[in-house]
Write a structure and sequence with these properties.
single chain, about 300 residues, alpha+beta, Rossmann fold, Immunoglobulin-like, 6 helices, elongated
């Protein structure tokens, strides 16, 4: 399976999409590069929520491996998202190109780092990693499969069982130009924590709030006015991640001053008055001479 990401992750194909080597190689040849920002944390969460679920082709009995390929430092918290995957027994290999941050790669990757972290100076050099990486991946899968059959079972991602693991009924209320209130119904089995991720739908830095599992509401503040926001509420358990709740809503535009009036005109002055704009702390008044032949 493959997902590409910038500000927003995008699944290119699921684990179950192709069944032969030739089909996968053809899909790679037809892939179009997605430029943009580097929100690695959001991408790792996308892979967990969208690509490593049974309906996307993930088999419960199979080992779970994620290979992260990045050419820059993440603009959000990649470490927190990576830790969630690793806690679920998913092994992460991190490959950096050009401007990748090696310290971040080492944070994100699974142990032992000498087998899971790679860094090259430019894209053409990625070819030099293929042979070694293939051998390492196959060996790791065999080792982990052997551990499982020997009785030390690795953690799997349980199939979400609806209300058992997943919250429901996300309500967004009290929306203003810079804030909104979120509330949801908790699952039957309260999670250890919730991750609440929110960001502007047209691109912008995702922000994240981590809440204790006993909490089921949150006030978001310091938002941008007149902007559509995407919101995700993701329950995190010790050995599982439930399905996330998602919502979309727009903050209100800033209120405007109204009823502009002009009075006390003289040859070089005039007085302006208006009805106040709610919440305004200052006003900027601009004036200029009207163009020739415009109405006086």
């Amino acid at each position: 399976g493959l997902s590409q990401y910038s500000s927003d992750p995008r699944t290119e194909w699921d684990l179950s999409a192709y069944s032969t080597r030739e089909q996968v190689l053809e899909a790679v040849r037809n892939l179009r590069y997605k430029g943009g920002n580097t929100f690695t944390g959001l991408a790792l969460t996308h892979v967990l929520e969208q690509n490593l679920k049974p309906d996307a082709g993930a088999r419960l009995e199979a080992e779970k491996l994620v290979i992260l390929l990045t050419d820059g430092k993440s603009q959000d918290d990649a470490n927190l998202a990576a830790q969630t995957l690793k806690n679920l027994g998913i092994e992460i290999f991190a490959i950096g190109v050009k401007n990748a941050d090696e310290a971040e790669l080492r944070q994100v990757a699974s142990e032992p780092l000498e087998l899971t972290v790679y860094n090259v100076l430019d894209f053409p050099l990625l070819g030099s990693l293929v042979g070694k990486l293939t051998r390492v991946l196959c060996t790791r899968i065999k080792e982990r499969s052997h551990k499982e059959t020997a009785g030390s079972a690795v953690k799997d991602i349980p199939v979400s069982t609806g209300p058992q693991l997943s919250p429901t009924d996300l309500k967004i209320s009290a929306v203003t130009s810079k804030s909104m209130h979120l509330a949801w119904s908790p699952p039957l089995r309260p999670p250890k924590k919730y991750r609440v991720v929110y960001y502007p739908s047209k691109g912008g830095t995702p922000k994240e709030v981590v809440l204790e599992g006993a909490v089921s509401s949150l006030q978001l503040s310091n938002l941008t006015s007149h902007t559509e926001y995407l919101v995700s509420v993701i329950p995190v358990y010790d050995t599982a991640v439930g399905d996330g709740l998602r919502g979309v809503t727009s903050t209100l535009p800033l209120s405007s001053p109204r009823s502009l009036r002009v009075s006390e005109l003289s040859h070089n002055s005039l007085r302006l008055s208006w009805k106040a704009a709610q919440g305004a702390t200052h006003y900027l008044v601009l004036c200029s001479a009207a163009p020739d032949r415009a109405e006086d």
